[in-house]
Structure formats: C-alpha cells, structure tokens
Amino acid sequence: xxxxxxxxxxxxxxxxxxxxxxxxxxxxxxxxxxxxxxxxxxxxxxxxxxxxxxxxxxxxxxxxxxxxxxxxxxxxxxxxxxxxxxxxxxxxxxxxxxxxxxxxxxxxxxxxxxxxxxxxxxxxxxxxxxxxxxxxxxxxxxxxxxxxxxxxxxxxxxxxxxxxxxxxxxxxxxxxxxxxxxxxxxxxxxxxxxxxxxxxxxxxxxxxxxxxxxxxxxxxxxxxxxxxxxxxxxxxxxxxxxxxxxxxxxxxxxxxxxxxxxxxxxxxxxxxxxxxxxxxxxxxxxxxxxxxxxxxxxxxxxxxxxxxxxxxxxxxxxxxxxxxxxxxxxxxxxxxxxxxxxxxxxxxxxxxxxxxxxxxxxx
Amino acid sequence: xxxxxxxxxxxxxxxxxxxxxxxxxxxxxxxxxxxxxxxxxxxxxxxxxxxxxxxxxxxxxxxxxxxxxxxxxxxxxxxxxxxxxxxxxxxxxxxxxxxxxxxxxxxxxxxxxxxxxxxxxxxxxxxxxxxxxxxxxxxxxxxxxxxxxxxxxxxxxxxxxxxxxxxxxxxxxxxxxxxxxxxxxxxxxxxxxxxxxxxxxxxxxxxxxxxxxxxxxxxxxxxxxxxxxxxxxxxxxxxxxxxxxxxxxxxxxxxxxxxxxxxxxxxxxxxxxxxxxxxxxxxxxxxxxxxxxxxxxxxxxxxxxxx
Amino acid sequence: xxxxxxxxxxxxxxxxxxxxxxxxxxxxxxxxxxxxxxxxxxxxxxxxxxxxxxxxxxxxxxxxxxxxxxxxxxxxxxxxxxxxxxxxxxxxxxxxxxxxxxxxxxxxxxxxxxxxxxxxxxxxxxxxxxxxxxxxxxxxxxxxxxxxxxxxxxxxxxxxxxxxxxxxxxxxxxxxxxxxxxxxxxxxxxxxxxxxxxxxxxxxxxxxxxxxxxxxxxxxxxxxxxxxxxxxxxxxxxxxxxxxxxxxxxxxxxxxxxxxxxxxxxxxxxxxxxxxxxxxxxxxxxxxxxxxxxxxxxxxxxxxxxxxxxxxxxxxxxxxxxxxxxxxxxxxxxxxxxxxxxxxxxxxxxxxxxxxxxxxxx
Lengths: 363, 307, 362
What we know:
Number of helices of chain A: 14
CATH superfamily of the largest domain in chain C: Response regulator
Structural class of chain C: alpha/beta
Structural class of chain A: mainly alpha
Radius of gyration of chain A: 23 Å
Shape of chain A: globular
Strand order of the largest sheet of chain A: 1-2
Number of helices of chain C: 11
Shape of chain C: globular
Largest sheet of chain A: 2 strands, antiparallel
Order of helices and strands of chain A: EHHHHHHHHHHHHHHE
Distance between the termini of chain A: 14 Å
Strand content of chain C: 15-25%
Radius of gyration of chain C: 21 Å
Order of helices and strands of chain C: HEHEHEHEEHEHEHEHEEHEEHEEH
Number of domains of chain C: 2
Strand order of the largest sheet of chain C: 2-1-3-4-5-11
Oligomer: heterotrimer
C-alpha cells in the first residue's frame, strides 16, 4: 500500500480553508517536538509566540503596525507576480520611498501645513515607483531580467540612504551621527490610540488593499495581467502589450513599497536612519505567496508574519529562547503552510500494490 | 605588476564562493526549478563544514559535510515544491529564513572555535609563470575544485546525454515526460546538486576563506549568486565571468580606497552591483541569447498526471 | 559631555558594604535589569563585551538583581517596541547598548518615568535616561604606539565600518599614537560600509596588506581581519575583544571594551535609590577600556613604554589628542599646549595628519 497524489478535476473550495488548519496542526506538532527538545514547556512556548504578543491593546496595535508595511509591499508585488513580473526588489523601493518622503519632510522644517503629510505620501509612492521604473525600463527596453536588476538595486538604495544620512541629510546638531533631524509634527502620521504607536498609516495600507482587491479581482486591467501571467503568448495574441504588463507590475510594487517606506519614516521611526526596514521588502514576497496572491489572503498572511516577529521577541523575553529559534520556527511554519496547499489541487489516494506495476516515479 | 597580481589573486578568492553557489543554482534552474534559498543552503553548508572540520581536523571532511548538509537542506525544498507542488519562490525564501535560523542555532557552540588557516596549494613550475602563475596556480585547493566543477558542468550540460535530458526537462517537461523521462526525479537530483554546491560555497567561506563561524557569515552572497545565474543568462562560462567581475569590482574599489580615492565610500561600495546591472544590460540587448537560454518552464510546477 | 569621575576604590568599598547589607536584608524583590543588544552575542565583538559586562554585574550583585537580554534587535522601528516591552514588564533598569536606540529609548522613557534607562554612546539625556560611553580612543592610542614600533613598512592598515565620530576617534588616535613613536608611519583606511561581513572584512584586510601595510587593525565586528593578518604573517591589532586566539602570532594587542564596572556601579545606584541621570565618558582611569596583554614578540622596551603611557593615561596626565594636532591639510586643529576638548572630540569628523586618503566633503 502506498500513497499517491492525484490531481483534482478542479481546485477544492473547502481545502482552501482546511489547508491552513492542516498547517496549523503540523506546526503545533513540530513545535511541540522542537520546544520539548530545547527543554522548554511547549505550551509556554506557544503561548509566548502566539498569545502573549497580542494579549493587550498595545500588543494588537504593534501587530497592526508591523503588519502594515508587509501587507503594503505584498499587495503591490502580487499585482506583478500574477503577471509573472518578478520584482524582488521591494526592499530597495521601500528605501527609495523613505528617502523621497524624508527629503520632503526635511526640506520644509517650519511648515505646519496639513498638506505636508499627503505630499510626503505622494512623494514616497513616486520614489518607490521611480526606483521600480529602472528595472521596468531595463527589461522593456534592453530585455534585462528584472530579478537581477531589482535585487541589485536594493543594495544600491540602501547604500544611497547610508550616504545621505552620513552626508547631505545629516542632522547638523546630531554630533555627526548618521541620522537626519527628527521630523516635526506635520510630517508624522497622527497616532490613533493614545499610548500606542498605531498611527494613521494603517489607513493607507487598508486603502491599498481595497484598491488592490478592486484592480486584481474586478478591473479589466487586472484581468489582462492575470491572463498575461497564465499564458504570455495567449495574451499577446489577444493584443495585450507585454511591455505594459511589465510596467504595470513593476510600478504597482514600487508604489506600494514606497508607501510602506513613508509609513516607517513618518511613523514609528520619525526620521531617516541608515536602515529604515528590517527586511520587510523580502518578507513581503513570502507574505504575497502565503496569501496566495489574493489581497484578503495577504492581509491574513501579513498579520501572521507580524505575529511571528513579535512572538520571537516575547519568546526571547519569557523563555530565553535565542533569536535563532525564531527564524527556524518561522521557516517551519511557512513550509507547512506552503506544503499544505497541495491539497487544494490534489488529493491523496491510497494505492493498493499491484504485482508488476511500476511505481510512478518521484511521487 | 605585483599590484595587479594581488588584485587578481584576491578577485579569484572573492569570487569562488559565488562560483560554487551560482553554478549549482544554474544546474537547478536548468531543470526548471527556481530555488531562492541559496543563502540558507550556503549557511547550513558553512556551519556543517565548520563543525566537521573542528571535530576531525580535516578541512576536506568539512567540505564533504558542507556538501551533504547543503543537499539535505535542498531536499526540504525539493519535497515541498516537487512532491507537494508548493510555490517555488515562496518556498525558497522560507528556506533562506529557515537556513539562517538553523545555522545560527547549531552554530552557537562553535562561535569560540578558530580553525587553523589552510595554506594555498601552489602548483610547482606553473606557479612560476609571470602574472598568470601566482594568480591561477597558487590558490586555495577548493579554487581548483571550482574550476573542475565548472568544466564538468559545462561538459555535462552541452556534451553529455544526461545533460541534454536535464535541459529538455527544463525546456519542455511535458515532452520529456512523454518520451519516458521522470521529470520529477531529474528535478530532485538537480535541486540536490544545487544544494550541495551551495553547501561547498558556504564551506569555502567558513573553512578556507575566513576560517571561523559567525552567525549569518555569508552576508548576502547567496542572493548575489542567484543574481549571477540570471546575469549569466544560464550559461556556465558567464557564471564564472560574473562571479569574478563581481569579486573583482569589490576588490578593486577597496584598492582605490586604500590609495585614497576621494569618493564617498558608499558610492564605491555600489560599484559591484551597478557593474553587474550594466553588463547584464549590454549582454541582454541581443534578445536571442536570452530566449535561447532561459529555461522555459523555470519556476513552474509539474505533475505527471496534469501533463 | 561632562566627565563623570569615578572613585573606584571608594566605590569598591561601598559595593562590598552594600553587599553585606544586602545579605541581611534580602527580603526585597530583586531588581529586574534588561539589556538590548544590536547583534547576536557571539564570541567577540561589540555585543559580546556588553554581555560580559552584564554577567560581571549579575555576579557582583548576585541575589539582588536578575538580568535579561534581547539580542539582534534592529535599530529602527522595532527597538522602541522591545524597550517598551521590557519597561512594561517590571524591569526597573534597562540598558540600550547601541547608538541607534537613542530616540526609541527617549520615547519609551517618557512613558515610563519610574523606570531607569541607560543608553550607550548617544547624546540625549533625560530625567530617567542616563548615557554612558567609553574613551575607546585611549586604548587605540596605545595600540598605535605598539604598531608604530613594530611596523617595518611604516604603513598601517585600518578596516573601518562607517565614518562616525567614534570610528574616526579610533583612526586618529591610533595614528597619533603610532606617529608619536614613528613620525614616518602612515595609516591607510578602507571603509566597508558594514559593521559585519567577515568576507569583505577579509578582502579589505588583504587589500591593505597588498598595499604594504604590515600592521592591520579594524573597527568592524568579526575576527576576520586578525585572521587575515595571521595567515599573511603580518601584525594585527584586535578591537572590542581580545582577539589573540584568532591570531596568536599576529595579534600585537587588542583595544578592549570593559563595561562590567560601569554596569555594576549604575545598577547599585538604582538599588540604593541614589541613581541620577548622568553622562559617563570613561577611559583607562575608570576601567572602561584596556589593552589586551601584548604579544610575546613585542620587545621589552616597547612593552615598558606602553606600560608607562598607560599609567599616564590612567593618571590623567596624557591625552591622546594633545596639541599640536594637525589635520591632513596641515591645519592646526588643536594648538600646542592644549588637549582637544570633549565637545570637539565628540563630533570629530576629520582625519589627522598621517592618515592617507580623504574623507569625502559634505
């Protein structure tokens, strides 16, 4: 007797919801083994990872605050990924957006105008788009693969920011440390709940999710891009421009990553620092796929990813688990989530052994 | 002259971890599998190699351990993406997260260990050739292995029948399946090979180049290796050029700094990345070279029944 | 920045007395002390030294404190959350051990006026936020003397991370120390734009060696530079921690950070409810920096000279930036007969004479 995967005639609707539960059960089992092996009470560990971070209002606020940049980047990336535009440089586009918005905030240090923050939001989106436009241009004009160009431009953007905060944008009163002046009130997102850091940038994220949902699910442009992603040649025959697809896919990712950059510098950071993101642009790629490139899924995946980060901190704090365990545990959970999705399109069949039958290879 | 020799010697050493990881990833991608977990596999390879070398005193046992550990890490990816048909991009990124965490966790007890440096292997007579001698024939032994690996992979890919099958699987998995090849088995093997090579790349770093273990010591080289495969338009020879170009520009900007170039160092540090983009743009302009080389089914799952 | 003079002997007596007192009145709940680290602890480097300090303090105040650290906390948006998490979980004293934690520390401190915060290497104080830093450059100056005596090529190499004052103080003090015994010697600097990348640290070290440096040192976090020197048979000066085990023949000495006494002292003050927000910038005199034992290859006369200079630094008779200090253009920045004032030293942004290359103009 052996197990065999068999393609379902059509994707199982029920499994779309059951597969995350399977992943949860597997994570639970693996976590139990892992934490027991480390000599920790697994219940305490699960509590530290999944409950403790959100057991008060501040925790929930932090969860949303950290999920916003992930969700923002992931929604924009998903637009491109659906059309097989492989922008993996959201981290650089986020940084470019932060630079553009930060520059604007520092250029108008006196203003109390309510227009400054909206202008920064626009500048951030444009900054991210400008950075994403480079791979788009090189791809459409010179046929240069965007995986390489967008990734390389991440390093360039981070070094550019480093140069700026060590040089032209350095706070003159900052004892020559690499940081800009702190932004003034008008350049910061207002807080939403007293005593927490949750600020109005979550509305930006919510709006982007809504727009992303409309574009991907309801608009003709989103439809053409989906077709382009599924069958490039079919799309070309139907008269959809490959060039336009690349531009749209790259710019969507750039814009939302840029917005995430604004959310960071005009939110919890409040100034330009040598590093404005602990890797949101890369983590967002995972979020996009774990969310199955669907805006609703991305929101859930973003919240989960955010919870895992917070959980890692609280596991360090309450259980003395080294930070390395967090990466290990995160990776495992993602493996299960990604692996369990197989049941959406396939089902397991028990195959009775037959004499002389050759086993299907590799399954 | 001596100066040039120093730059070139350093260039080759700096490029070698990239050569291993990128050549391995090239074979993986040629079979149609896109594994973005190179960074994670390199790190797992690095710590395994370091631990084995520390335990046995033999760097070659270390290299073997790094190779096996890299392949074992790739196996997780292969099961996920080839058997369970998970998304390759996401699974690869998750593998990187996992590898960083795993290596850091395992490595805790090796942080205080320092290995003896290995002397370069100088090949008599050949190493006396002016310029070329010291550059090409007085290197760490693994450097020669990387050249052998390059020659072997180039021969395999373009001259051997299994290489032809591998490419066919990457180009047209349905046809390959139809004429009786097991697409999944071949992709498994290619993925494991990629992991093993990434593991050797990690071993080169932790056992030969900087013989120590520190968390996250690959510092992004896995990502560069991935980019180099694209840069090389999936051709082994161009992987070598790309790796040495990247290493060379890195080393050259250090030399420029040491000589007192008055350019902000951040801009100099950007050079390797910018140079790679510029050269890619130049070679990509000829559309045919790309079309002919990028594996058509790259990143797309394959299931025999659906085929 | 003002200097906080520590009377070490008095303090030791005081601590012993407090310890005895604590033994009798131990009913009190132990003070929870938290540490935020920017990188993993590892076996050497910036965070490792802070953790050594934490352990020393925990041992010295055993029974009266419990300590906790959170490692690998990125500077930026995440730091504030982690600091707040500690503050809201009953930690009475929190050390934030990297410059990038400055603004987050200040922000959290406003919300938790009863919690004491100590921030390393920054410049913002508050009623419940003290700051502390060490005069690493004093140890650099001594290391420079050793390098100046040992170099044959008269070229020293310096692998550096980012051009911030702390790093420039080190480069300049090293060069001044070296040229105080060997006026012909010069320093070459390579910036790698990363605190931590062993491969690139190594490449930079190899480059400097190829360019004629026979003593190399680093202001980056891994022992890769020391290893490179060991392999290429040149000398090295370690930084942060004693790096000699990574290069037993190469390592002349290391400029070492010592935080333990400061941590014990500050924690004791909080225990005694005598803590006040201060700015500490201590050097040899305060036991906050030191140099690791010299390599056996260092001749006795050099060792004696270094010991003498160390004694002068300890006694406050020697200042590494004693005038005349000229910058690269030959302009006198500190006139003869004066030492560089702390406020100038804290914002140092130029190379002194003897450092090759140039810092980019702003």
